[in-house]
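User:
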Amino acid sequence: MRPFLFLRHGESTANRDGVIAGSTDAALTALGEAQAREAAIALANSGIRRIVASPLRRALRTAEAVAEALGLPVATYPGLVERHWGEWEGRPVAERSSYLMVPEGGESWEAFRDRAWAACEPILAAGPSPLLIVAHAGIMRVLRARLGLDFAGKGVANGLPMLFTPPETAGLPWRAEPVTKLQPEPASTPAIV
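Assistant: Predicted structure:
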């Protein structure tokens, strides 16, 4: 696999309100729209040739802002939809005991990981490159888990582009680094929603 870029959507109404959105189709806030525009500026010279996104509004709108700036189309993939949290969707993030909990009526971590990776793997293998994936914090966790990075690591801030780079030696983990630090992560916004 080749290096690729990942962008978590801008701040959504669920992020702002501190609730679990999961597969709920939350919209971007005004701050989220601004973060999407800032990400487009940060990615202007990245050479991106392909943009794929989750079809949920918060990710798709973020992808569209970048695509407009770069003059590229956006392809959507249903497999990039955030983890379905069942009865936990709409509840405060602070009440969730663990990311690995199995939500009533929702996806287990294992089911989500396998579903999301089944979507990501062919996207990453296809051309052209460089590729930008615009999705959710859960998809970032799946990528980290499947590419040998620390799963327990903190999620990614809204609107912060990340560059994933394969190791020079087979068997070693990938690297994931911010393209640029657009803004500090707001203390009131959970990293994983």
